[in-house]
Amino acid sequence: MTRSHSRTVRKTGTAESGRARRATRVTRRALLAGAAGIAATALGTGARRVFGVPALAAAKPAQLNIGVVSGGEILGLKAIAPMWNKETGVRLNLIEYPYASLYEKMTTAFQANASTFDIVMLDDPWMPKFGSEAWLAPLDAAPFNLKRDPDIFPVVYDLGSWPPPSGPVPPGEGSKDRHIYAITLVGNVEIFMYRRDLVPQMPQTWDQVLAAAKRLNNGSKQFYGFTMRGAKGNPVISEWSPILRAYGGNIFDDHWNVVLKSAQTLSALKFFTGPLKAVSEPGADVTDAADRSRLMATGHAALGETWPAEASDSVENPKVNSVMGKVAYAVVPAGPAGKHTPLMGNWLLGIPKAAKEKDWAYRFITWATSAKVQKPYAAAGGIPFRQSILTDAGLNKRYPFFKAMADSLAAPPFWRPRTPEWSAVETILGTHVNAALAGTETAEVAVDKAAGEITQHMKEAGYIK
Amino acid sequence: MNRGAKVPAPHRAGAAITAFRRAAGPYLLLAAPILFLLTVVVYPLVYAVDLSLQYYRVGGFAGLHNYTLAFQDSLLGESLRATLVYAGLAMAVEIALGLALAVAVQRTIRSVAGRTLVYLLFVVPMVTPPVAAGVIFRLMYIPQYGILNFLFHDLGYRGNPILWMSSPKMAMFSVLSVDVWQWMPFVFLVLFAGLQAVPPDVTEAAQVDGAGGWVRFRAIEIPYLKPLLLLVLVFRFTDTLRVFDHVQVLTMGGPGAATEFLSLYLYKIAFKFSNLNYAAALAIYVVIIVSIVFSLTSRYLTEETT
């Protein structure tokens, strides 16, 4: 444009010197604009240094579209969004969906190769589907070349990697090159809570949990030794899985054979549906997360598992907590083998392959997960995942469960089997474990039926013959 | 007008437009609802049939494979059994209660204000969203802090807390109670409206002849209400086949699969197992059953009224 203006000036000659002078002024203005552009680029480079990512040659977009789940999981993200907008001038457009719709919207967009989202927030059980379909851009390959940060727990990188670095790998996926496709934003990991005023010694094993719960349980006064989230489906499986793994049981071996029918599984289920249920609230088989948190926060329970979001929203919320300062947190107890086995349930950030603004999406991800930003993120109620943040003394005063989260992430925690069939497997297992908890099936029948139905399902899915 | 005179060209054009309007008008008026029906009824139905005729995972034409699969599915059998028990109990309780209340209100409350108040009270549950109804009842039934167990305690009950949703029978009672609370008023309102159609001189004549309340109910009111009773039965039956929201909130289909009714089972197959093909086949079965019930009923009602 500047060049065309100059050409115009040359053509018009001296007769139109006035206009030419104006044109010359425009040219100077353009030159100034150019200089400003160079300065901005230099500043931009500086800004990139602040982000700590390599320089990327992408023009600045007006906004970044990020598909997120609505609810408590994005509390921290909402708090840091204005900071990002101010620092970069790129508006972060949070497109919120309920849990089930988010998955549907994302898969629909990916299947159509649509650039609906520049960034997506995904629940970790979705990783197998997204990984096997190759819907996300690898973050540890060019042009991003993400490097592992020692402040981030290795398990966090492993969770966002595909194919999974440990455990069984879905058929046909093992031969693929492993890459990191997503980075954790919400570092959810299941932890253990207990009343420190009533249980002076932190319970290290499930047997110690049971002993303390038996001592404290007093149903006639509506005080329960343990609070159990046993509602059908995902709730009861999230609750029981750490116990199953602590007892040495598992659902699959490394080749997807169903190994549920074992002495370890039976012991874990009998412990769960027998002595532990006996010291839990009545109707544990219909108790969900909100009921469990309410019992603990209102001083009606002594011990129980919890998720950080529950602790943050309810148990550590002075508006609803009548036992403020009396609840302590720890890594979930160990089983007979002495191994602590917390369950992971992270929310991750990834960049769709069809995204328009990949460079800026990557800048945002590295910015949002940086130690600098994770601090205000956590202070605003977000669930962090960096070691330095989780062990920060100041943050632990406000959120006393952070240290337990750090210990759990270092344990390391286990993840749900990496398969797109997990939803079906969890539904089957969640039905029978719930039936055993309600007493409509014996532990043996529940394990037998669940193993049979899961085997049948995995056969139909082509995982086993 | 002179017969021999020529009709001017503009008049001929106007006549042609009028003729076209007369001929095409009804079709144009019909086009909008037909397009609407094609979009929201026919297309999804055809899509569902298409899905049901394909293999799960591998795709390709599967013929009736997904339809025959239903006969080997023992879990579907359990779900059907639970659904039929639920439907039977819901229809029986709602019709008995609705009918009894309709007759009672008809005979005892004569004032307009009194009847208006009854209508209003009975409309409230019907306009409550089923999810909200589920949440309200869950808060009442939850054993740890639900109001029902507190009431029992205040009344002197000192046993173990009643587990309203934990055994198959209690869970069935709990989900059924929400259905009765929400839909018995529908039965009441329909039957109460039906009772208004009973000619007063007939009942007065029966009273003069010495007929008591029961005889009037059996010999006069029931025959008048027969078509409406059938209608209510059909509506409630088809509704119970679709029941989902409050059951999901209250029991999630548990304990085990005790309250996993057909719609919850369908949901599970479609969205937890991602088997849309089999779920579509099951949905088509439901559509067929409902269509048969509706066509038989409408034929019966047509014969009754002609």
Topology record:
The complex is a heterodimer of chains A (465) and B (306).
Chain A: H1 2-12, H2 17-51, E1 63-69, H3 75-88, E2 91-97, H4 99-111, E3 119-123, H5 127-132, H6 154-159, E4 161-162, E5 179-180, E6 182-186, E7 191-195, H7 206-216, E8 224-227, H8 234-246, H9 263-278, H10 289-297, E9 301-306, H11 308-315, E10 327-330, E11 347-350, H12 358-368, H13 371-379, H14 387-390, H15 393-398, H16 402-410, H17 422-438, H18 443-460
Parallel strand pairs in A: 1-2, 1-3, 8-9
Antiparallel strand pairs in A: 3-11, 4-5, 6-11, 7-9, 7-10
Helix pairs in contact in A: 1-2, 3-13, 8-9, 8-17, 9-17, 10-11, 17-18
Chain B: H1 9-52, H2 65-72, H3 74-108, H4 112-127, H5 130-141, H6 147-154, H7 168-195, H8 200-208, H9 213-241, H10 245-250, H11 262-272, H12 276-305
Helix pairs in contact in B: 1-12, 2-12, 3-7, 3-9, 4-7, 5-7, 7-9, 9-12, 11-12
Explain what you see.
The complex is a heterodimer of chains A (465) and B (306). Chain A is globular and about 65 Å long. Chain A is built from 18 helices and eleven strands. In chain A, strand 1, helix 3 and strand 2 form a beta-alpha-beta unit. The longest helix of chain A is centred in the N-terminal third of the chain and has 35 residues. By secondary structure, chain A is of the alpha/beta class. In chain A, helix 3 crosses helix 13 and helix 10 crosses helix 11. By secondary structure, chain B is an all-alpha fold. The mean pLDDT of chain B is 91. At the A-B interface, helix 10 and helix 17 of A face helix 11 of B.
Q: N-to-C terminal Cα separation of chain A, in Å?
A: 68 Å
Number of domains of chain B: 2
Shape of chain A: globular
Tell me the helix content of chain B.
over 70%
Major pleated sheet of chain A: 5 strands, mixed
Give the second-level CATH assignment, the architecture of the largest domain in chain B.
Orthogonal Bundle
Beta-strand segment tally of chain A: 11
Characterize the main sheet of chain B: none
Q: Classify the oligomer.
A: heterodimer
Element-level helix/strand string of chain B: HHHHHHHHHHHH
| C-alpha termini separation of chain B | 50 Å
Helix/strand-derived category of chain B reads: mainly alpha
Please write the CATH class name of the largest domain in chain B.
Mainly Alpha
Alpha-carbon Rg of chain A, integer: 27 Å
> From the coordinates shown, what is the CATH architecture of the largest domain in chain A?
3-Layer(aba) Sandwich
Percent helix of chain A: 40-55%
Count structural domains of chain A: 3
CATH topology of the largest domain in chain A: D-Maltodextrin-Binding Protein, domain 2
What is the strand content of chain B? under 5%
CATH superfamily of the largest domain in chain B: MetI-like
β-strand number of chain B: 0
